[in-house]
Amino acid sequence: MLRTFTIGAALVGALTVAGGIVGIATAATTTTPANAARPLAAGDWPTYHKDNGRSGDAADLAPVSTLATAWHATLDGAVFGQPLVIGSEVMAATENDTVYGLNAATGAVRWKTNVGKPQPLSGLPCGDINPLGITGTMAYDSATGRVFAAAETAGGHHTLVGINATTGAVEVRANADSPKGTVLDEQQRAALTVLNGRVYIAYGGLTGDCGSYIGSVVSLTTSGASPISFAVPTKKEGGIWAPGGAVVAGSQLLYSVGNSANTSGTYDGGDAVISLNPSTLARTDFFAPTQWASDNAKDLDLGSASPAVVGSFVTITGKRATTYVLRPSHLGGIGGQLSTAGSCSSFGGPAVVGNTEYLACHSGSAKAITLSATGAASVTWTAKTSVNGSPTVGGGAVWIVSGSGVLFALDQKTGAVKGQISVGGVPHFVSPTLSGQHAYVGTTNGVVAISGA
Known about the structure:
The chain is mostly beta strands. Helix content is about 0%, strand content about 40%.
């Protein structure tokens, strides 16, 4: 039976209305969950790139075979975030602020919940998503059985919603606006992270780099309470927008930060990999290239891709086509990298298996980089055909969706093409979800399931 929920009279007490625009009240609204904890199982994909380390490694995926379209679920808008898989259910969110629970085998809609009216592009100073609703990849919390999303609604406000993953009922709703900058200039693009009873939400700017925004991270408990935040110590910009969001490394959260305001003088926190304490969101460490001022001036920063934990090291590959290898115990400050390697201009999220990283190349073609025991990086293969995008790995293949809407399965050892199939129009930085015998891909009008994975 299809269950449909909308945010209306049942939540009037959680909303304030001014000038015809619905704004989110400061206090959180939480209801008792209808389901208990729903532990993770084999085949589940509860967050961006499967786990909080953002490995993108579906080790239990069936070996790649002939690719075919299993189903295409047409939803009410574009799906920018990675679909999640919990048991027999695929969950996806659209730019019309609707979250769906789909049957993983057939694509049939089990439930759908609309959480607000999205922000139209006509009311924004710049951008390229119309309307602007739920963009960042959601995250599932096995302790509460809820899936969490950050929804942008009319007026540019951002709201954390926690939805019962079995029924689609909204159980948590709380204000999650960025602590600094102008609300209409802030965009929530990075994947959400759930860790130790808290949800982490990162913010950057709109395409076009307009207005007054400052990169930040906001965190609330999974009941929508006790907000804490971090803001990049710059007067402008420094967006935290890479689609992978936080990478959990030991007891720290790692984020990449984009170009910030300063192009000379005192370093102001941009063009960096930062480490945040999950309990306080205090910055505990950072790395920035020696040429940070030039990167800021030329838009060649590190903020376009997520960092990666590769073996005993942390890597970051941004827009300059250079991979930096860092020590996780001390990221190195300015110019303190352990080693570097020429690679590719990277946008999105990489995947990692063991000591090999599969880069999210934006130009050129996909590459695999392997680290030695001492942290020396070397390119071990470049894809045999021109393909770029954010990869995931499983069934002996590296799976990448190109900007033209073709899903490629590349041989994990050589980069040779093992299979390819068109999935239709796709948003920027789309990355495939892998589970069981399927790849699930968000498209400009819904979700496509590909069999043979």
